[in-house]
Amino acid sequence: MIQLDKITLRRRDGAGYRHVLDNLSWSVSGAQQVALTGESGSGKTTLLNILAGLLSPDAGTICINEQFIHTYNATQLALYRRTIGMIFQHYQLLSPLSVADNMAFQARLNGRAVSREDIALMAKRLGLGDKLDAFPTQLSGGEQQRVGIARALLNQPRILLADEPTGNLDSERSQEVLELLMALCKEQQVNLIMVTHSRALAAQLPRQVELRDGRIHE
Ligand SMILES: Nc1ncnc2c1ncn2[C@@H]1O[C@H](COP(=O)(O)OP(=O)(O)OP(=O)(O)O)[C@@H](O)[C@H]1O
């Protein structure tokens, strides 16, 4: 469950300040899948960063799965971040590591044991069963993004924040990636918040919201 109450965040804009998020309140129930849309610069990435505990708002309260993260110190935030998965437009895979090691990277960083079987099972589910020993540069964009999904999900997050996860892919690959992402999040009861510029993709998620004038509009 995500509960944001009266979140305000200002950014410097020329000589003054601009409210990127302006008294924003929003709630998302557990395991819901939500598409977050909005014009360029409307604050979508900013909002994801706040949910990820990477950015503190100027005002407002943030309650995520019963944790009031706006009250957390740096150590508590670091622990909180381990429960969050993130997927990016530019996959951010580590090129010297194999696909298998990239997949396990986040979970291992967080001290979670990931067996070869866990990795193989996830790879198979994502159609990457024969790519485990390959390196990121040997993969297509869609395959690299699927490795990014595996990396996030093997860490068993409660919430998955996806920032334009299909932004680099053609429409066929985008559709494939979205279907896998939604199916896996449903199976694992993961809360999915996905930023997208594509109306066609957004329409496939059970809930769509728009960030406009610093607030969420249903
Ligand atoms: N580090 C920063 N310092 C100052 N202003 C920033 C910073 N990061 C973002 N901004 C500003 O905050 C606003 C919101 O940016 P954000 O990246 O959240 O928008 P967005 O909706 O994700 O945009 P896009 O769809 O283009 O990715 C923009 O006006 C941006 O210029």
Task: Describe this structure as you would to a colleague.
- The protein is an alpha/beta fold and 218 residues long.
- It has a single domain (30-54, 81-217), classed as Rossmann fold.
- The protein is built from 7 helices and 10 strands.
- The protein has helices at 44-51, 74-81, 99-109, 116-125, 141-154, 171-187, 199-202, and strands at 2-13, 16-28, 33-37, 59-64, 67-68, 84-88, 159-163, 191-195, 207-212, 215-217.
- The chain has a 6-stranded mixed β-sheet, sandwiched between helices. A 4-stranded antiparallel β-sheet has the order 2-1-4-5, covered by helices on one side.
- Strand 1 and strand 2 (16-28) form a beta hairpin.
- Helix 3 runs parallel beside helix 5 (141-154) and helix 5 packs parallel to helix 6 (171-187).
- The longest helix is centred in the last third of the chain and has 17 residues, at 171-187.
- The protein is globular.
- The relative contact order is 0.20.
- The mean pLDDT is 93.
- Adenosine-5'-triphosphate binds at residues 11-12, 20, 38, 40-46.
